[in-house]
Amino acid sequence: MNKINHYGVNSLVYGMLLQVKLHKMKRTQMILLLSPNEIRLIQMLDPQGTFSTYFDLTQISDIQQKEEPQLKIINQKGAYLKVYFESVFQLITFKEGLDYLIKEANRIQKQLDSYNQIWSSALKLITKSDLDMDNKLNFKEFLFMIGELQIEIQERKLIQIFEKNQKNNQLDEATLYRLLMDITRRHELKELYQKYSSKQEGLFEDPLQAMLMTDKDLQQFYKIEQGQADYQPKRKQYNFYDFQNLIFSEDNSIFQPKQVDQSQPITKYLINSSHNTYLERNQLTGESSCFAYQDAFKMGFKCVELDCWDGENGEPKVTHGHTLVNDIKFKDVIITVRDFAFYKDDNPAILSLEMHCCLKQQKRIAEILQSILGDMLFVIKDYKQARISTLHQLQRKVLVKYKADDQFLQEKLQLHSSTLFFAQSHDDMQFKTQEYDDHKHQANIKQFSQTLDDHSTKICRELLEITSLYAVSLKLDKQPELVWIVSSVSEDKIQDIIKKSHGKFFEYVENYFVRIYPLGLRFDSSNYDPFPSWSAGAQMVALNIQTKDLFMLQNYGMFLNSSYVLKANQDVKMNIHVRIISATNLVWEDEKRRQEEIVDPYIKIRVAGNHDDVSKSEKWRTEVVKDNGYHPIFNYQCSIQLRHAQQDVIYFQAYSYSILGDSLLGQYCLSPLNLRTGYRIVPLLNSHFKPLANCSVLVQIKIEY
Prior knowledge:
- The protein is an alpha+beta fold.
- It is 31% helix and 24% strand.
- The chain contains 22 helices and 31 strands.
- Strands 15-14-13-16-17-18-19-20-21 form a 9-stranded mixed beta sheet. Strands 4-3-2-1-7-6-5 form a 7-stranded antiparallel beta sheet.
- Strand 5 and strand 6 form a beta hairpin.
- It is globular and about 95 Å long.
- Residues 486-559 form the PI-PLC Y-box domain.
């Protein structure tokens, strides 16, 4: 570590007095320091000693640096902390120290979780509950800890537990850990553990403590129950809590990654696509930022949209025109593309340029793309190639989508006339299936060119030279000479087009791209059902990433394995038998609400995708478990029959029941093709699609093909 990092770390260890603004609170002065008792937590203290709170270093999802000396620290629940600095040097010192402590906290978290999840969670929980910071909990602090666990225990019972275990009206760390061990024991695993345990040691009141599972026992369990014959234990024997730790570890997730065939032309794949990617909220008054592009790439989106407008000082900008949305520099967006486009995988990124710039600033855009992206930028070498390049050939390449120009492409293709119908209306492509003679063809080109002149600016030669996907009108009656084309259709027209094409649309999307985008009237940036377009073979079904609704959850599940999903030629039939056994740590997303109300959880499972599979599926849900979010037991069984599993996703949602309306606690979605059999955990996400710490549903999965 260099000197400035040492200084930054030491500053946080001993405390820094800074101006901060907590989420939904006023700006105030606070002391920020590394918790003396738990190095995964930063403590924030009011200088007068009237207020104290923590933020968890392992839960930080993003740190955003603004132009003025301030940082915005965002956690996985979307809550934020703004920190203001007196100088840029102070900001850099703080940030480098914080970056180091975050890295260390995540390393320690991983080590502790792999060793003992209960102890890992207990350390944080006890520290947060220790309001007077004396390393012990009084009865009031003990009640706070139980509230954080989201378990409804009668106060009379809590008084009895406290009185039985207290010393000088306090519970020490060792006692609290023992109590938490008892509370957090997963009794639903008892029979399974006993079934495979062959060794007994010592005399204990609790028979589970006397039983041990050998490495051979554990191998047998993984072979028979989990379908993993190649599992290699890491030690010679395991007690019950070791076994419980294995079951609830992230390595035992329900999701099974699979290799993607990269040998096919990229038109054979569905591509994770976004619309108005620059927006953080709605398209009328929302804020735009480069961090929205970062978030998109981190979520695995590969087709992103850039609305390009003339900016100040000859520098083009990205914004939503004629609205209250703020501007960001085009150059800054492309730097973000360079740094984050291949964050999740190396599959090609597609920049969909919606162009509103004058010719001069379009030339500047071409310069920026070439200078910043360099060799990442894919440029067509052979305009006459019969098939578009494969996914493998385009790894770590950035493709640019831009308006086509008839004269330019006819020159590249060495044609005197063309059936491409290159020109397009401003955004919504025209659907034509009738035949044209030469006269009508030329008249049509002239008409479309006039439309372009009326609604847009001139086309830039420099941009055309580095474009790899040329935007053209959708024509299904003739085969275009160029494979590097894409047609955009709005969500309200695509189904009518598919229906009237009599199968031509399905043939077309085997070799040419079609992009679907949301209706312009969705001012709230809501989403539409992507499955009808995916089922028809449309590759780019663009959704509003800033809106984390049910359709976005289904999109998450569709592309969880890869940002490019190969369109299957054969149906996959599956009978999936699911047993929802229990859940862990189902709590309110709002931390304040946790101390005021206990959840009444239930779990539901749904299928989305192929129309036949969805129509034949049931509305599966467990019973409601009253007043227990920490460890509800469900033992609910259902069977899911799929006949087109390659087109489907399965999603799990945890809710808290209320007569006034149920509240979402957590969610998860995946393709049935990625399901793992056996006893697995469903790792739940919050409303922002960020992982919820130690929050999962325990299921048993059996599959018949």
